[in-house]
Structure formats: C-alpha cells, structure tokens
Amino acid sequence: MSFLFGRFQAPEKNEKTDKVDQELNEQEQQEQQEQQQQQQQQQQKIQEEKPCDLENKPIRKRTTFLKNLMGNSSRNNSSSSLLSTTSSSSDQVNTLPPLQPLTLSGYKINTKHKLLLDLELASNIRNLLPARLQLFDTWELVYSLSQHGMSLNTLYRNSRPEHQLQEMKKRKKAEKGYAEAVVTRMISSDPSNSGFTIEQKRPHGYILVIKDEKNCKFGAYLNEYLKPVEHKRYYGNGECFLWKVEKYDPSKLNYNKDSESSKLNYNKDSASSSSSSNSRTATRFKAFLYTGINDNIIYSNRDFIAIGSSHGENGLYIDQSLSKGVSYPCETFGNEVLNSKGLEGAKYGTFKIMGLEIWRVGSLE
C-alpha cells in the first residue's frame, strides 16, 4: 500500500520542481534582458561620445600611391607659388625709384678751362659704381690741374680725406659765425671719436678724368684715394675700372666685328652725337671692368701713377710732371688703348695731358 501511495504522490513533487525551474528560467531571462539593455545603453553612450572625439582628434589614415602623387604635385604647386611670390617681390625690389640728379661741386667760376667732367659722362660712370656710392648725388672736386697747379705732390695732398675735411671746415668756418665754429671744434675733438679715421666712417670713391691734346677723355674709377707708396705694393680692389669716351662714325660701324669685343668688355653707348661740315661723328662711353687675372690694380709713388699692369705694361700711366702719359692694353682690366692711337696698328698710345681732375664720391661727415 505504501508503495502505491508513493507512486500516486510523485507527480505532485514533479510539478513543484517544474514551477521552480520555470521561475529560475524567467529570472535568468530577465537578467539577460537587463544586461542587454545595459549593453545597448553603453553602446549608445559610446556612439554619442565618438563624434566629439572625432572632431577634436584627427583620424590618421594610410595614404595610397595616388594620394602620394597628388601630394607631391600640390607641393610642387606650392613651391612654384612661393617662387612666383619671391620673383614678384624681387621685381618690386628691382623697381626702385630713380636716383637723384647729380651735382658737381667745387669748380670755381674764374677758372679758365672748362669743366672736364660733364653731367652726361658723370651719369655713365655713376651707373657702374657700387650701389652704396650711387646714392650720393653730389660729387666734390678734389684736384684740378687748372685750379691747383701741375704738381703730383699737390695731387696726393688734396686726395687725402683728412686734408679734404680740413678744407671743408675752413669753408664752413668762413661761412658761419665764430660761436658755431667753436662748438663744432669741441664736437670734433671728442675723445670717443678720435679712434676712427674718415675711411672707416664713410665709404669713398674717386673719379680720375684726363683730357689729352686731341680732346679725348678717359680715366678710371678708384675705390681708394691716390697716395705715394714707399714699397712696390699694389692697392685697390675689384670695384675699380678704366673707361674712355671715343669718337666714331655711325655710318661705318660693323656690328659683326664689334660683337666679339662686346662679349669681353662692357661697352655702353652714350646718346650724345655731334655733326660737322665734313663728317658726322658721335661719341660713346666704354668701360673696362676688373678681370681678376691679376691684382695689379693701383700703384703710385713720387715718380708716377700706374693703374693696371701686366707684362710691364700699364693700362694707364701718368708721369711725375702730370704732362705726359701712355696707355697699353693690360690683362688687369682687359682694356683697349684709352687714348686715340697715333698710328694704325700701334700697340699703345702716348698722350699729352691738357686737363686732369679728381672727383670724390661720398661725404666726409
């Protein structure tokens, strides 16, 4: 009986266990749903936060081969644009305002001979000067054969900047009153300024102009003033050059022959021309720049002045009396004979000095 009773009561226990299992399953499902909801909420938060991060932080991607090519072309375009901007800026620099017209000062009215250096010739020489000296629009006459006499020692003395400064102070003292002269003397005697010379303070250049018996003009530009040198030592630098103004007949020009010489020398034609009853002539300015073959630029002593030298021949030579001279082609400047040759085919030219001037470019104060 008991066995039978047990058999009839077993289904009730199974039903209870099934209910418990269902409840457990439902709880697990609820927990899984809650976990899924939490995960979905977290994903939504992450998705909401990602756009902010993307805006703040750049995304790095690998560049492809095509993108690299495009990047190089853009770089080339940017470099070309930079070159164009720099070229435009250089064009702006090159388009500088014109220089002020020149003023030639120091020539006395009562002098018999006319001025050797006219404004047209001075402007041609000015175009070849260093840029720092082109800005000076007043050139001062330092020495003139007609005003100061025929003396090499006087030429050397007047060429010294210290002597020029003394002469300038004398002129200013005569023009101004005594009190102002005393003040300027006190300023000039300041010990703080005594350690510097004029050459260290201001840049200078000197123009040598010669006129011979045939009215030919020629000369040189010198970066240093002429001075007697005791030992045989050349001075000057590559800024120096020789020049001449030659007469020619425009109708007889042969441009094919002149083209070869124009490659070696800097030839600049001036626009001045003159006509006569017999023939029509014109003048042109030629400059012969420093070649760099040797350093024999300027040598001067108590006996002569020599500018340019090669193989014992000078581009321009002036004797002690300042009355005669000679000109040879020399390697220092690659120049032609500066004066008109006496005979056709002559290798040099001798001349008599009818006029000689030295002009200073640059201020003393």
From TrEMBL:
Span list, region Disordered: 1-95, 259-278
Domain TLDc: 115-362
GO biological process entries: response to oxidative stress
Recorded GO CC terms: mitochondrion; nucleus
Record's keyword annotation contains Mitochondrion: yes
Low complexity bias (residue ranges): 32-45, 72-90
Compositionally skewed regions (Basic and acidic residues) per UniProt: 10-22, 46-58
Compartment annotation: Mitochondrion
InterPro entries from the UniProt entry: TLDc_dom
Assigned keywords, A-Z: Mitochondrion
Family: Belongs to the OXR1 family.
PANTHER family assigned: MUSTARD, ISOFORM V, NUCLEOLAR PROTEIN 7/ESTROGEN RECEPTOR COACTIVATOR-RELATED
UniProt name for this protein: Oxidation resistance protein 1
Organism of this sequence: Candida oxycetoniae
Lineage: Eukaryota, Fungi, Dikarya, Ascomycota, Saccharomycotina
